[in-house]
Structure formats: C-alpha cells, structure tokens
Amino acid sequence: MNHNESKFLSSESSGSREEQGPKRIREFTSKEAKELAPEYIEMREDFRRNPELGFQEIRTSQIIAEKLEKLGFEVRTSVAKTGVIGFLGGTGGGPTIAILCNIDGLNVADKSSNVAHRSKNEGVSHSCGHDMMIAWTLEAAEILSMIKKEHGFKGNVKLIFQPNEERQIDPRSGALMMQKEGAVDDVDGLIFLHPASILPEGRARTSEGLVNAASGRYRLAVNPKQEDVVSGKSPDANTLLALVADQMGKYEPQAAHFPEIIARTTYAVSTKTVPFAKILEQEKVSENQFIGLKVSLQGPGGHAGLSLGSPNLNVISARLIARLYEKYGNALLTYTQNEGTTTHNALATKTDTWLTLKFLNAEQKNRLKEEVEQVVKNITEGWTKLDCQVETVEDIKTIPFSSEAYSLSTFRIPQESYIKPRREVFVDLKKTVTALMETSGLSKPKKVENPKLCPKGEWRLEYNKGTPPVINDPSMIKIVEGACREAGITEFEKPRSAGGNDLGYLFADRTGRRIPGCNVSVGATDPEDFKVGRYKDHHHPEFDLDNKALPQGAIVLVLSALKFLESKK
User: Fold this and answer.
1) pLDDT tens digits, residue range 33-64?
2) Which of 77-91, 252-266, 331-345, 391-405 has the lowest mean pLDDT?
3) Domain 3-213+469-567 sits in CATH 3.40.630.10
4) Model pTM above 0.70
5) Do the Cβ atoms of 347 and 539 come closer than 8 Å?
6) Which of 44, 87, 105, 298 is spaced 20 to 30 Å from 557 by Cα?
7) CATH code at 215-464
C-alpha cells in the first residue's frame, strides 16, 4: 500500500487517521464532482437529444468507449451486441465491484417542455433517465480514475454499460445476454443506481429484499376475414382484442395498490388499416346503414408497472367496446388508436376509438349516441385525471377500418415466488383467448415457421416468460445507503415496485454463483417542483430530470464502490 493510499483509505492507523482518510476521499469526490458537473451535464443533454433503441445504441456506445479509454480503463466493446465494459484495476489485486448502467432509449415520443434538449429521433426518447445514468456513471469513472492515479485503492472497478433494458423480454434481454457473455463472472458485488423523477433530490429508495416484480409478456394477433366482419359473422380484429383485454381486466390494478398479480394491456395496434369507404365499396354496402362515432380518452400516461393509480386507457377502451358489443353484437365495428406510446411498458396518454354501428331504423340511429355516452360514463366514472369526449363522425367513409391487429400486454408478479402465478396467468389467458376465438369463427393456430404471421381467419398467441424479480442484498443496501447519506441524501423509502427490470439476471454469473447486488433509486426532481407536482412519471412523453442531481449520483457511485472495496479487506 503506497503513501497516498494510506493517507486516504487506511483503516489500520489511529482513530483520528481512520476518520481522516474517508473524510478526505469524501471531500475530494464532492469537490471533483461539482467541478466536473458542467461537462457531464452537457454530455447528458447530448445523450438526451440522441436516444437510440435497444441493440441500436451505436453512437452512444462509441462515445462511452472513447471516454473510458481516455480515462485509462481497459475497454471491451460489442458486448451483447452494443454494450460496453470498462475495467479499472486498482493496486495489489483484490475484489471487483461492478457498476451497472442502462444505455437504451424508449419508443416514446419526446414532448419535454425543454425544447433545447428534446430528442432529435422521432418517436424515440430517453424518457426513463438512462441519459443521466450514463453521464453520472462516466463522471464517476473519471473521479475513480483520478483517485487511482493520485491516491490509489485496492481492488477493481468494473463499469457495465448494458444495452436493451427497456425491451427486456427474454431472450432479447440485454442483461441476460451480457451475463451469458461473462460480464459478471469476475464480479464480487454489483451496484445499480437509477435517477427517479418521482422522488425529490435528497430522497432515495433503498429497499431490502424484493424490489422489482417478475415480468412476462404476451402478444396476441388476430386476422378475421373481412367479408365475415362486414356481414356480421365475426367481430372485427380490434373488437376481438378488446374482448380479450376486458376479460383479463381482473388483473388490472384499479388504484395505487399492490395486488398479487398485475396484468396491463399497454399497447394495442392495428397493423393494417384502410378507410371505411374502401370496405363499403368492396363489400357493396351502403353507407346509409351506418353511423360513426369517435370516443376520445386522455390520461396522464406513465410507466406501465409504476403508475398503478393512472388510468390504463387501453383497458378502459376495451371495456367500452366490450359493453357495446354485449348490446350490439357484430353490428359494431371498432378501431382504436394510441398516442404517447408504441411500447409495452408505457401507458398511452390518449386513445381514439372509432365506432361504426350498423342500425336498423331511424329511431335506433337517433338514440345510438346517447346510449354510447351512457356506457362511457358508467365505465369512466370514478377515475381522476381522465378526460373523455364522444362525438359524431359525419363522414363515415373516413373512419379507419382494421382487418388485422395485434396487442402487447405485460403482467408482473410482485413476489419472490413467481413461477406458479406466472404460469397461472398465461393458462388463464390461453383459455380466454381460445374460447373467444372459437365462438368468433377463427381457426386454431397452425404450426408455422414465423409465429408472428397471422393468416386470414386465424389467430396467434405468442408468450414470453420475461424476467425474474430483483432482490436486493441487505449488505449492499447498507453500503449504498451509507454513501447516499455522505452525498447529502437524508430521506429514505423502502417500497416494492411493480416495474420489471432485467437486472436480476446479473445477480448471478454463468455458473449460477450468486452475486450480492442492489437496485437503488435517487431523487432527480427539484424539491420545489416536487412539492407542487411539477414532474412526470418515467416513460411519460414529458418526462425530464433536474441536472442538479447528476453530480450527486456520481458521488454516490464513487463512494459506494470504494466502501465496498474497503469492506472486503
């Protein structure tokens, strides 16, 4: 151990010197983090403007790798396709602490009020905070590099920049791919620090044990024959999806509570649409037999697993369609369009549902809108932060018609024993779908090379088991919580989360050896803004973070890493 290392880190000398070393490290880290902050805030803004989806993070990875090389890290690129690993060896060997950082963006349009750093990539944004996570991890890397050069430390630091966390469904999970490529084989502990818009600066979430739910996903595709739909023999594609979502709605959280199983139909889309005028022409049907209505719903949106109190517009639209279907049967044709999301883990901020109803006489036509408005009122009452509007569409020829559609839905199991309930959810879903499709005249799916293909008159149900739960190690939480306190964080919460995260794969190496790890969230919203509710949830189009939180995150990472290495002496 050299002289500088002893001055800053030694725990073998007198009481006063025991206190002196860590204190100097804290002061040095805090000083450097504040001085470096402008550079890394600028870097964060650049990442924010240039988000890239999972396994497409080419530019992001290149910037990370170049920065790490300049800082003296051993760099490995193309891990799990677009991931990066940086290794900083200390003096005299010792344990290795890993810091994990996500680098991908989301399929969510960026509507941040800060126009200057709004995403340049249409339909893609850093609406979960990975831009800040990258920046504060690189700032921590620079400070650790300076500490090694000027003062030294025993042990090693490994930075793991993981691609594709957002689209984490196995086998495309970025964390699982990195684990399979040996990213944590030499790791003794792992820290994951996430900026949180739903927490004010100065507060952190440091739960022990179960912190993130297990997750799974299914994709349902339906393709009824157009002639059967128009003739009334079969429901249309969008209505079929709605009927399934309505029946599976028993797993949908009705308020901000923690049911044992949460299932959310977060994204439903028609893959092929044509104007209703084309259907009238092809099927030789008169437009005078139909009336067109449009039901618009608006809600706050947000993270599908975190925003349990937010209205799920997809499910509300599905319930509306299901209740109307009970009344009108196959005389009802529907099409639902989402805004604010094209991904399974974010809630839509707006849905427009077009209803095309075939009526028998003038009296029935006149009362259709009133009946629809009453059904909408019955379904939507009780929800706050939900706006609804029903309007007549004068020219039904312009209404979209869907001949083929699919939906993406997720379910989450917020308990450590998750295998059995996960299986039960899917068995329930399969029974529901099979029964509905059989009564609608669609045939059972045949075995095909590409299960996503859905021929006319058939349906497909694709299931992915998803990710395991994330279980925080108490000893790691103690270390990171201590670092948080030294960084100025004074308030701590210990909740569970229904949000999924593939982080759990990296709490074990390829041999199954368990690695103590933790997932900690730190506040990244200005306290005054937080008091008045001036912030948006993760995965929301208007999501943003306060740059003042960035250097604090870097300090927490540096002190956590050094505390872990000290604890292993």
Assistant:
1) 999 999 999 999 999 999 999 999 999 999 99
2) 252-266
3) yes
4) yes
5) yes
6) 105
7) 3.30.70.360
